[in-house]
Amino acid sequence: MHILFIFLDGVGLGADDPAHNPLAAAELPVLTGLLGGRRLLADTPRLETERALFIPADACLGVEGVPQSATGQAAILTGRNAPREVGGHWGPKPNAAVAALIERESLLARLAARGRRAALLSAYPPGYFTAIGTRRRNYSAVPLAFTRAGYRLMDLDDLRAGQAFSVDFTGHGWQSELKIPDVPVLDPRAAGRQLAQMARQYHFAFFEHWLTDVLGHRGTLAEGVRLLERLDAVLGGVLEAWDDEAGLLILTSDHGNLEDLRHRHHTRNAVPALAVGRARAALAGLTDLTGFAPAILGLLDGPSAPAAVG
Length: 310
Description:
Layout: E1 2-8, H1 22-25, H2 29-34, E2 47-48, E3 52-57, H3 69-78, H4 82-86, H5 96-105, H6 107-113, E4 118-120, H7 126-133, H8 141-148, H9 156-160, H10 172-176, H11 188-199, E5 204-209, H12 211-218, H13 221-241, E6 247-252, E7 271-276, H14 292-299
Parallel strand pairs: 1-5, 1-6, 4-5
Antiparallel strand pairs: 2-3, 3-7, 6-7
C-alpha cells in the first residue's frame, strides 16, 4: 500500500458564484468527472462514485474563530484537535504549543518509528534553506513535521533529478520567478504522471501546494481559475498513472480562502476531502480534519512491504 497526499492550502467549499469563486468559474473536467458531474462547492453533499469518495470536512473543529494554517495542518498531521488543545486557531506558522503537538503526535514520527518510507515531494529552493539556517524564516507545519520525524527536505538537486516537484508542479516558476534556469519544466499532465510514479517509491508521499492560499489572499479571479485548471490537469496525469488497487490518493485542505474572493481572509467553510482508490473506505468515517492521520496509520500499520519503484 502506498498513499499520495496532495494538500491544497486554503481551499474551501464555497457558493456556486462564478463571479467570486474560482471553483465555480474554472473548467475542471477531471475533478468534476471524479465527482459524477458535481463541483467542489458548498452544496455538494458527501458522495461516492465509481472511483472516488468525497466528504465535506469540518475545518473549524468546534473552536470559535476562523481556522488558520498552523493548527489546521497540525490537526491533519496528528489526528488531534489542535486548535482546541492549544487554545484557539493559530497561524500561519506554528507557535511553541503547535510545534510541541506536532513533534509529540505527528503521523510522520509514527511512520518513521515503524520504518515506513515517507517523503515530502515538494522541492525547496536554496534561499529557503539559507533563511531557515539563519533563522530569518521558520518552518511551517508540514516541513516541521517531516524534519522533526527525521525525514529530509527535497532541494534543487532533487528537482533537477526528477525526484521532487516545484510548488506549481511544472518547474516553470523556478525559472520565471526564482531565476534558476537549469530546472526541468514539465507540462501539467506529465508532472502529474511523474508525481504518481514517484509516490510509488514510498509508503507515504506528501505534496504541499500553497499557491492556492496565496491567491486567496491577494490574487484575482482569473489567476485563481488558471491555477485551478492547471491543478486539474496535474490531477488528470496523476490519475492516468494511478493504480487504484495498490494505492490511495488523498486530496484535502486546512481551511477555506480561495473559494470566496469577495475578501482576502480565511473562511469557516468546510473543506474538500477526496479519496481515490480501493482503500478509500478507510476514510468513510471522516467528518473533520482529525480523521486523516488515524486512517492513514491504520492502512500502513501492517507488515512493511517494499514499496514499488518506477
